[in-house]
Design brief:
Distance between the termini: 38 Å
Structural class: mainly alpha
Order of helices and strands: HHHHHH
Largest sheet: none
Strand content: under 5%
Helix content: over 70%
Number of domains: 1
Length: about 120
Amino acid sequence: MQFVFLAIGLAAGLLSGLFGLGGGIVIVPALLFFAKMEPSTATGTSLGALLLPVGALGAWQYYKNGHVNVTASLLIALGLFAGAYFGARVGLSLNPATAKKSFAVFLLLVSARIWFTA
């Protein structure tokens, strides 16, 4: 199972550096499908992995090329800090089936929005 976790991290890291995504779009679904975790455990595990400055090297590359708005990054981080707390409280109150279905609807809406605005 350790190889699966390492592969999930590698894939999330590559996609994070490429598209700026990782936790919710890559790590959580991968943990649901490949590690057979419950949604709350997958979400908590993803947040645990993201506690470390995992994006630091990727962000540094973008920053060196003038593609990081530092003020926006800090404000988003502040929002993430508070939002993750309240999101976790709500997420933990959902039953696993409702959590999976809600996540699937979210992904469909995001996908449709990106598709139709491309």
